[in-house]
Automatic annotation (TrEMBL):
Protein name, entry field: ApaG domain-containing protein
An annotated Gene Ontology molecular function: DNA binding
GO CC terms of this entry: mitochondrial nucleoid; nucleus
Leader peptide range in chain numbering: none
Top-level division of the source organism's lineage: Eukaryota
Pfam families: DUF525
InterPro entries: ApaG_domain, ApaG_sf, Hemimethylated_DNA-bd_dom
GO BP annotation list: error-free translesion synthesis
Domain ApaG: 198-323
Lineage, top ranks: Eukaryota, Metazoa, Ecdysozoa, Arthropoda, Hexapoda
């Protein structure tokens, strides 16, 4: 009996409890593969090495590490003030676990997720992955369907063996390597700065999550970098088209710049009942340890009329005094 299923262009997740299947369609060929058995979802955090299927985007993933974050739901237009360390959003918030997770490279071409390789300027090459990580996603706790793999080739990512080794004694079947343990230990102070921000306009919900990735000294100035993940989700029944974006970026020194462009990454995106959500990441830099950004997406309705969808204000924060994170050479 089919218990649950969500469909996406070219990739489907099918649940026949307690089994999990992935259905992929490439050109004129298709496959239905059993990938594992469902685990009982947890209310507490998932451990590193936990495999999951993303409920919204359908791809296979594995948890690197997680942290408890605040999720701000912003209901009104905000004015950015970064002159004081006390300037923070005052909207209502709740808590949830966020996770850094690898995406299975067999699924990433078919998921509605476009993540730039994340460049961690605070990591040394002795860890074996040379600062940047491709197919890295930020995942909410409620987005995860945990499972235990039954595949011979359980996960495909070029850094999988750098971070995990098989351990049949663990429920997740994998334990972390020293490289991942050391990275988590050094990077953990940054994760408390990665809050999530939400805003909804006419049934279009935008969620943003900034992730501080380090700094680099250039011409005697520290250039700070953040990865910003953005999810756009159509909660209604009508199809809309995302036609353009408009960002405002401010630093604590009151310097500002405007970023405009067509669609997302130069591409127009359609959000329908069949494919209601899209997620992407990009990077932003400041010659300051703190700042903020916000903006709007322009969307078109089916009758060709358009409206502005608010991108919530998000804070760009770092902890410059933390000596566990070193600048990249």
């Amino acid at each position: 009996m089919l218990v649950s299923g969500r469909c996406f262009p070219c990739i489907y997740t099918v649940l026949l409890k307690p089994h999990v299947f992935i259905y992929t369609q490439k050109c004129l060929t298709s496959q239905l593969l059993e990938i594992g058995r469902l685990d009982t979802p947890k209310n507490t955090n998932y451990e590193p090495g936990q495999m999951f299927v993303h409920k919204l985007f359908g791809y296979r993933g594995i948890v690197l590490f997680g942290w408890l974050t605040r999720i701000y739901d912003q209901g009104a237009t905000d004015v950015c003030r970064v002159s004081s360390a006390a300037d923070k959003p005052t909207q209502m918030f709740n808590h949830s676990y966020n996770y850094l997770a690898l995406m299975d490279t067999r699924d990433s071409p078919f998921a509605s997720v476009e993540n730039e390789p994340t460049f961690f300027r605070s990591l040394r090459s002795m860890y074996g992955f040379k600062y940047f990580i491709p197919d890295l996603d930020l995942v909410f706790h409620e987005d995860m369907l945990p499972y235990t793999t039954t595949e011979t080739e359980s996960f495909k990512h070029n850094l999988f063996e750098k971070f995990f080794v098989y351990d049949p004694s663990k429920q997740s079947s994998f334990k972390t390597t020293r490289a991942l343990d050391e990275w988590q230990k050094k990077y953990n102070p940054r994760l408390g700065l990665s809050n999530a921000y939400k805003a909804t306009t006419e049934n279009i919900q935008v969620t943003t999550i900034p992730l501080y990735t380090g700094y680099r000294n250039t011409r005697r100035k520290n250039v700070h970098w953040w990865r910003v993940s953005v999810r756009i989700e159509n909660l209604g029944e009508s199809t809309v088209t995302l036609s353009s974006r408009h960002w405002q970026v401010f630093s604590m020194s009151s310097l500002s710049r405007t970023l405009r462009g067509r669609g997302v990454g130069g591409q127009v995106k359609i959000l329908s009942q069949l494919s209601p959500a899209f997620q992407y990441s990009s990077h932003v830099s400041l010659i300051a340890p703190r700042g903020c950004m916000w903006g709007t997406f322009t969307l078109k309705r089916e009758d060709e009329s358009s409206f502005e969808c608010r991108i919530p204000l998000l804070l760009l924060q770092s902890k410059e005094s933390d000596k566990n994170i070193v600048a990249a050479p």
